[in-house]
Amino acid sequence: MDVDISTGELTVVSEATLDAERVRAAIKDAGYEVAN
User: Fold this and answer.
1) Cα–Cα dist 19/12, whole Å
2) Could you tell me the mean pLDDT of each successive run of 10 residues in the chain, 36 residues long?
């Protein structure tokens, strides 16, 4: 995981396949929003 404080961008890298909907839900549950 990498966070760019100046832009607010978060990058996640995983060797396993991630379910996009579960990732979006986790981000939303943490109080953030997903930008495409």
Assistant:
1) 12
2) 89 92 92 85
Res 19: pLDDT: 95
Model pTM above 0.85: no
What does the domain layout of the chain look like in residue ranges? 1-36
- Burial of residue 27 (CB within 10 Å: 0-12, 13-18, 19+) is middle
Distances in Å between the alpha carbon of 8 and those of 3, 15, 16? 7, 23, 24
Separation of CA 24 from chain center: 7
